[in-house]
């Protein structure tokens, strides 16, 4: 119990540190790039854009629902689109702002930054990270802070800012994370969950291994030449980047691996449709091998291993709650509430629940006469069936039971499916309880009352 509380305390400190770091970043300060190109800094709400910035042809201040058509300009191919952000409110907890770029082909590059100065700096540096072959067309912007996206292309395109007040995936992530956090203790000991998780990890993990092996087998220099020829870069840029040790790691290892994973993710549906047999065969083979491995080692039995699995799932759940919304203060508060509630001992929760029920007792609905009869018949049939099942089971000592009965023959008939009442009992019940009474039968005369009193005194 002490180790569990220590773990929750450490998680709380981590999230508090994250929130404090973010709060310190939001403190207004001096933007080093403001005096250079007169672009707004990190806090546009405090400093409105200058006239030079507003009139610039390559700078656009986007608003919700705004659509722009950018005309092709080969002389100035870079355009910067910025969103100023809005005030934090609980009504925008699940809100998402997206910048969508509608362009034909992949002959463009994108740069993301906190302001226009940072975007232009990335463009001037022309980092080798921008030479990846994939192109992103949907950008999620910061909801409460300024964020900018730069698009560099000689072609024309259309840009639109879309608003989703309730992002479906944010709701799913939040609900799933809360359920996972409170169900982690049961899932960590569940055999079915153990097998399904092992098989899923085996299928995904084997795919990652295959992609990495394929990426390692690709020649390094030829890939770099193809990438740079694709984007028509100058030869001196090629020689400069080839000398960088980062290109060797990027092309020969994780760089191409990330590209292949990105390609598979973006074209997952089309790949499965075109190669259904291969996809199904891979999933079946990888699933069977993973099942065999999990079956060989069996579910976890050591309590410490189970605790590690539980804490890992709870940590993932807390991260899911924290990143389910851009309103970090609200998600951090929700995380603290969840951790605090889970750390409270069960006996304290039981006492609080008992006090709440006594203070606010639930309303009890009484049964009607018809419901009472139906429930009585149902419970009687269920109890009789349980008695028959017990009498047929080896646990029942037949001779001992028969020796205690007054009518063993009737009991034997009941066990074999007969009625538990005889004809005499049924007639007696119907005559005493089911015969309707008239109002005259309930009335008595004075002489009858005197006779009853005399009989009572004698």
From TrEMBL:
The chain crosses the membrane at residues 168-188, 195-215, 245-265, 277-295, 315-341. It is a multi-pass membrane protein. Its main location: nucleus. It comes from the Eukaryota. Residues 26-56, 437-458 are annotated as: Disordered. InterPro entries: NEMP_fam (IPR019358). GO terms for cellular component: nuclear inner membrane. Residues 33-46 have a biased composition (Basic and acidic residues). Keywords: Membrane, Nucleus, Signal, Transmembrane, Transmembrane helix. It is found in: Nucleus inner membrane. Residues 1-23 form the signal peptide. Residues 442-458 have a biased composition (Acidic residues). Pfam families: NEMP. PANTHER family: AT07567P-RELATED. Belongs to the NEMP family. This is Transmembrane protein 194A. It comes from Scylla paramamosain.
